[in-house]
Amino acid sequence: MTSFGPSISRISCLGPRSLFQTCSKVDSLAARLAQQYPRPFSNASRCSWREIRTLNRIPPAQIPYTVRGQFRAYAEARDIITEYEDLPEDYEPRSGLPFRHKPLSQDEATSIFGKGVTAAVANRVLRALHGQRVAGTLQDPDSIRWAPFEKKLMDTGLQWLRDNVEVDEITNAGLRAEDEMRDMEENILEDAERIGIWKPNSGTPEGSSPYEKGVLETIREENKKAFEEEEEQKKNQADEIRESSPNHSWELQTQTPGSSQVELRRPGENPRLKYYLERAYDTAPEAPPEWSNFRRLAPSGLVVLGTLVGCWALSTFYEPPKNSKRMYPDIPPAAATLLTILAANTLVFCLWRFPPAYRLLNQHFIMLPGYPYPFSMIGNIFSHKAFYHLFLNMAVVYFVGTRLHDEIGRGNFLAVYLGSGVLASYASLSYFVLTKNFVSSSLGASGALCGIVACYLTINSSETVRFFGVFPPPDWPSVSSLGLLSLLIFVESMSVWRKAKSTQSIDHWSHMGGYATGIGAGVALNVRYNQRKNGERELQRAEKRNNMSIEDRIKSK
Q1: Reduced to 3 states, what is the DSSP secondary structure of residue 124?
Q2: How many other CB atoms are found less than 10 A from the CB of residue 448?
Q3: pLDDT confidence band for 46 (50 / 70 / 90)
Q4: Is residue 340 predicted with pLDDT exceeding 90?
Q5: Exposed/middle/buried for residue 49 (C-beta within 10 Å: 0-12, 13-18, 19+)
Q6: Residue 441: is its pLDDT beyond 80?
Q7: Which end of the chain has the smaller Cβ count within 10 Å, N or C?
Q8: Residues facing residue 471 across a β-bridge
């Protein structure tokens, strides 16, 4: 399982007015890009941000926020990256960048964020925020998606970083915007060349015309020069109006020749997107309410208990249909069951990219310890936000699940999968609530995955393990199923012990809950299987005695 919450709209940290005040002329490329690519953060300028850095002409009143020039305690070393040009090629937004040599201790984390925030969470948040400041993606939703309830934590950490680690956020954002504009312009030229409407070095080279400059060409150049002077005068007048109206520094409208009026507005101002985001934010308060542990755990515990009762009924009373009455008789039952689970997980993964579904997903498809929704104990089992997370989980679920399904049947398999998932979610919720860690969240099928793996290895505890039927080779030392299960639990236990010292966002307690549930289910299924076998033997013996003659019965005694 992984942490972090739903996506938010991309909001540029670059003030367009300050940019255009410094530049000599607005390039018409901005209008073309605004028409072809509906990305409201895109704008263009004749002067580059690398030139703007030396000009220092942006009025302080036009900057959305000020970067203080006071002494920073932790940004003096060379290996603390603070400039966009020094950003490493292997930079990952989720991992962030080091903001100091030594991670925060628990006392320092408490002094910054208050009680309830562990040192691991504090260091992970500060690393991610520092990386966004350097990369110029401080509020970029494609970088890191923060949950609504994490906004207060993010604001506190960002303020601490601005007070202690000096980073020129405006310049870094401008450099990144310049790189994005360069990439987009190259894409436009490549598309134009590909479809044949433009060719490199096409037309007559300048100065190679066999004709002298005509009267019409002279008039055209004079008109163009007069038009440019008029546009420059209008721009200067607009700058004066903007300086006298600082409250409207984010509004920008430009008129380009041969095109309609184009508005480059601040990202995130799409009314429909803002509406869906506000509805998603309303699902949880900014700060966790002052509830008791019982108030947070009891409703979810009732849902888990009801789910376990349903799993028991499914395991006990389910009878597989005849092959002639199945919806897809040509597909093996195990494949049909697992493909349905994969389809459900893929559907929820796609809904995370659909803004109208944000509110539903925040309520019932992600586990929030600070404000838990009871049915999220079930929904988060089928919820993934990252593709690699979905792919890895579903690959293991299908590989192990089909084998377990063939051995125990559909009813038992679904009972193990759902039971392991809800108990793993509840174990994770209990840990976060009891440790007062309310700034975390969890989702994913990892708990259910660990449950079916543990159940399969428990049922076949006396067998040796061979991956894909070929590894390890027969002449190599074999590994028993019980030994592999013990190794998995040992590695997970070590991860739980070391979690406080790491910045990983893996829900190890959910994995431990899944392993425990899978082992219990495997033992119960083995007991039931042995009881059934003993009952069948007794029945065969009774039938045999009934068919024996009186003389044979006396002899058998």
Answers
A1: helix
A2: 29
A3: very low
A4: yes
A5: buried
A6: yes
A7: C
A8: 467
Per residue in 480-531, pLDDT (tens digit) is 788 888 899 998 888 877 765 554 578 889 999 999 999 999 999 999 888 8
For the chain, the 3-state helix, strand and coil shares in percent, each to the nearest 5, are 60, 5, 40
Q: Maximum Cα–Cα distance for the chain, whole Å? A: 133
What is the pairing mode between strands 262-263 and 464-465?
A: unpaired
The answer to whether the beta carbons of residues 175 and 57 sit under 8 Å apart is: no
Helix locations, 196-292, DSSP H: 215-244, 271-281
Residue 312 pLDDT > 60: yes
Distances (CA, A) of 243 to 18, 63, 67: 10, 12, 20
Average pLDDT over all residues of the chain? 76
pLDDT at 470: 62
Domains of the chain and any CATH numbers: 288-542 (1.20.1540.10)
Would you place residue 214 in the very low, low, confident or very high pLDDT band (cuts 50, 70, 90)? low
What is the identity of the amino acid at 166? E
For the stretch 144-174, pLDDT in tens is: 666 666 677 888 888 899 999 888 888 888 8
Helix (H) or strand (E) holding 551: helix 550-556
CA distance 258 to 241: 25
Phi-psi region of 201 (alpha: psi -120 to 50; beta: other; left: phi over 0): left
Q: Cα dist. 555→148, 540, 551, 552 in Å?
A: 81, 19, 6, 5
Lookup: tokens for 62: 């036009």
Q: In the prediction, which pLDDT does 351 show?
A: 94
Q: How far from 276 is each of 49, 312, 346, CA to CA, in Å?
A: 34, 39, 22
What does the DSSP assignment read for 357-422?
GHHHHHHHSSB-SSS--TTHHHHGGG--SSHHHHHHHHHHHHHHHHHHHHHH-HHHHHHHHHHHHH
Q: Answer for the pair 379, 456: CB distance below 8 angstroms, yes or no.
A: no
Determine whether 58 is exposed, middle or buried from the number of CB atoms within 10 Å of its CB (0-12, 13-18, 19+). Answer: middle
HSE on the CB side for 60, CA within 13 Å?
A: 4
The residue among 333, 325, 432, 441 whose CA lies nearest residue 379 is 441
| H-state helical runs in 435-507 | 446-459, 481-498
